[in-house]
Amino acid sequence: MKYAAIFGILFLTTVLVIAINKPDDSIKKVPGVPIHATAVNIADNDTLPEGGGDFTFKRSDTEWKEILTSKEYRILRGGGTELPYVNEYDNNKEKGIYVCAGCGQKLYSSEHKYDSGTGWPSYWRPIADSLVEERIDKSFFMTRIEIVCSNCGGHLGHVFDDGPQPTGLRYCMNSAAMDFIKAEDERSN
Ligand SMILES: [Zn+2]
């Protein structure tokens, strides 16, 4: 009985040692190709300065709270969504451009704005594709394509494929994430 217990402990220890030393084949390293989104990379990202990422225009979280109103902060930095219909630019039909409320980058033109009936300002294209970036957004049990400002990373809205031609796209934006510059003001700048 005593020997059985000793063998039992030895056996369990051996199994444990083998299990601990088992190589982790869940991450397969391809020579010359860096592994993205491993636990190590995610830990590294957590050490980036607040408001970090690969964006040119960077501010700390404290600075963003000083620059933006609480509503702008909730949307641009927190990925929030404003109420439909009662927002500032849904009904705006004036000529001009819409810029990022966080960093001032030009985003959309009134030339590409249309009434989507959704209650949010909608455009069938940005002024240039390079001005916005797309990201996969899996919040609220949906998979959507999020649109962020390519200069500061601020959340602007989402893009859907039910827009008018020629693109068939609907860039559904939050008014509070943008500032509007009227055409005549634009010229005087
Ligand atoms: Zn921006």
**Main sheet characteristics:** 6 strands, antiparallel
| Helix run count | 5
From the N-terminal CA to the C-terminal CA, the straight-line distance is 92 Å
CATH class of the domain at 61-188: Mainly Beta
Q: How are the strands of the largest sheet arranged?
A: 3-4-8-7-6-5
Order of helices and strands: HHHHEEEEEEEEEH
Q: Uncertain regions: pLDDT < 50 for 5+ in a row?
A: 15-52
- Rg (CA only): 25 Å
Strand proportion: 15-25%
**CATH fold description of the domain at 61-188:** Metal Binding Protein, Guanine Nucleotide Exchange Factor, Chain A
In helices, the fraction of residues equals 25-40%
Class per helix and strand makeup: alpha+beta
How does the overall form come out from the CA principal axes? Answer: elongated
CATH superfamily membership of the domain at 61-188, which one? Peptide methionine sulfoxide reductase
Mean of all residue-level pLDDT scores? 81
Going by CATH, the architecture of the domain at 61-188 would be: Beta Complex
- What is the tally of beta strands? 9
Structure characterization notes:
The protein is α+β, with helices and mostly antiparallel strands and 189 residues long. The chain has a domain of 128 residues: Peptide methionine sulfoxide reductase (Metal Binding Protein, Guanine Nucleotide Exchange Factor, Chain A, Beta Complex), CATH 2.170.150.20. It is built from 5 helices and 9 strands, in the order ααααβββββββββα. The strands form 2 sheets. It has a 6-stranded antiparallel sheet, with no helix packed on it. A 3-stranded antiparallel sheet has the order 2-1-9. It is elongated. About 20% of the residues have low confidence.
